[in-house]
Amino acid sequence: MSTLRNNKKQFMAGWMIVVACMLIQAIPFGIAANIQALFMHPVTSDRGFSIAGFSLIFTIGTIVAAIAGPFIGASFSKINVKLIYILGSILVGVGFLLYSMCTELWQFYSVAVIVQLGATAISGIGVPLLISSWFDDLSKGKAMGLAFAGGSLGNIFLQQIAIQSIATKGYSYSYFMFGIVALISGLIISILMIRMPKNDNEIVRSKNVEVLSSKEDSSESGYSLNEVKNIKYFWMAAVGFLFVGIYVSAYSIQYAAYFQGFLKFDVATIGITGSIFAICSLGGNIVGGFLFDKLGVTKCLIISSVLVFISGIALMMSNQSPIFAHVFSAIKGLAVYVYMMGPAYMTGSLFGNKDYGSKLGLVQLLFAVGFSSGSALFGVFVDKLGYNISWSIILVSVVLAYILLINSSIGITKLNKEKELKLSEFEKIA
């Protein structure tokens, strides 16, 4: 009876961490990442910045954070996780409210670095490491899907609140107030809820954990950092996520300026479009986590490739009717799991847990390069070629991304099976 009670406590402790990650994604991270696109048109119109110039806040902030990512990841094994989350929350909240005081582009760039460093600590690196620490391989897909779904859940409300706040109070007031909300919520969650498991007994394990116990299922399983550097499929996946970053950046950041500034959609329509994306991405994250566990990586990538391509076509047809804008947001939301949890899940699932933080840092670095450059490049394309051709170029990056990712998944899966077969034959001989 006492064993059952202890197992229940361990189960509850792990899933409380998922709740904490959901809240982090919903509020402080959601404010830092999900509503910035809504400020683009008001800021550029008021300050006279070009779209390409202002888009560099995403490029500079994300690149600096990505370079710092491996160091942030390594710090989790040296510094108390609660302290890292507290510091990250301060950077996100204080940084975001500092946007309200910016008047020059270089000031926006500097603040973007602060915000993105904090967001990397509490979300980009922090959430995958927390989930991987608290859940075994057969459970972490569902847990990670639910954790990242918090961002979508929060975005349902943030999109509407932000667009109305900017329209009625102005962007400076909105920057300041959302920064305060991010700061207070992040500190409360970090202090009261964030922690690492005390020991292995607290780790949430699936019912089939006995099957895994006979295999290599420790933090030392899979390929080391030095080994994956010589595996072409790892670099195919990493470069694939670079192209994912490009299309995600363009679709996520530039859509509001396109709808509001070029197509002249009204505020209500843009708010509805943002909320549709938030609702569908909530389902996409939750279902995506289960799909990764049930179908495997390759089939999930194939499904996502079809969804993203269709969403891109719908975006290009939005100039005919706002309905296509809503279709774009809905389908893109359903495929959100690939970039929200894909790098973290694929890194562990395909290449193992050995040196997990370092390998994930490399993959996220390539994704960040794509994400940070995608919006800025799109801004340049728009200035030179117009929106129609620019969206077509982004659609090409979608095709390249999934060709690389799907081939990487197929290739490394085959390589892993060959490796397991050789190991099995060796053990029989021994």
Please, could you describe this protein's structure?
The structure is a single chain. The chain has 20 helices and no strands. The relative contact order is 0.14. The chain is mainly α and 430 residues long. It is 83% helix and 0% strand. It has a single domain (2-196, 220-429), classed as Growth Hormone, Chain: A (Up-down Bundle). The model is unreliable at 210-219 (pLDDT under 50). The chain has helices spanning 2-26, 28-34, 36-47, 51-75, 81-98, 105-124, 126-134, 140-169, 171-193, 209-213, 225-228, 232-253, 255-262, 267-295, 297-316, 322-334, 337-340, 342-351, 356-385, 387-429. The radius of gyration is 21 Å and the shape is globular.
